[in-house]
Amino acid sequence: MNAEFEPNFVKTIPWDASEHLKSAEDMAAYLEAALELGDPALVAAALGDIARAKGMTRISKETGLARESLYKALSPEGNPEFATVLKVVKALGLKLHAGAA
């Protein structure tokens, strides 16, 4: 086959935000950005990313919620109860803030 007609393939790998959340400041900024966008699915997914960065087993123990339930609730398809969100935020060592728009 002629080299100029060979397809060029780019190898991609999945990007996992949890691998890049190293400090409490990183985690807080990530959650704040998700909250500012106002998309509940994005907020749940961001909490899931942060929980994975901290260790989902640890967050499960601290919240008293099953690890599998947390993975499901804190996914883009999840719809966690507000009580779950508050428990997870506390276990992550983060705070939710309100401000005037």
Oligomer category: single chain
Beta content: under 5%
The SS-based structural class is mainly alpha
Shape: globular
Please give the radius of gyration in angstroms: 18 Å
Number of helices: 5
The string of secondary-structure elements, in order, is HHHHH
The overall average pLDDT, rounded, is: 91
How does this structure look, described?
With 101 residues, this protein is mainly α. The chain is built from 5 helices and no strands. The protein has helices spanning 24-37, 40-54, 56-63, 67-73, 82-91. Helix 1 packs antiparallel against helix 2 (40-54). 23% of the residues are buried. The mean pLDDT is 91.
List the helices and strands and how they pair.
Layout: H1 24-37, H2 40-54, H3 56-63, H4 67-73, H5 82-91
